[in-house]
Amino acid sequence: NPNTLPVREWILDKFKLLASVDLAVEAFLPQVGVQASLLFLQKKTEVERQLAQNGTEDYEVFMAIAEKLGKDRRGNPIYLRDEDGAELLFSTETEY
């Protein structure tokens, strides 16, 4: 979207983009059907900002897509099931 270009430029000027995770459309359903992403940012130091202005900034960015969010398009929870179809429940004390 060209309307968001100033915002993207401001973010990249002030912050180092560590990761971008695209969320599934179900993230805000059933209330709102929007495509959303999570950005993980780290504030740049003055030296890093100068390197970026000189065009010598180079770093890796982690990118991922969240395919399942634990609910369907109607907002109903999706449970992990065993081979027999029974819901698998975890204690908060269980290590995953």
Automatic annotation (TrEMBL):
Keywords: Methyltransferase, Transferase. The keyword Transferase applies. InterPro entries: SAM-dependent_MTases_sf, Type-I_RE_MTase_Subunit. GO terms for molecular function: methyltransferase activity. Gene3D superfamilies: Vaccinia Virus protein VP39. GO terms for biological process: methylation. PANTHER family: TYPE I RESTRICTION ENZYME HINDI METHYLASE SUBUNIT, TYPE I RESTRICTION ENZYME HINDVIIP M PROTEIN-RELATED. This is N-6 DNA methylase. It comes from Pseudoalteromonas phenolica.
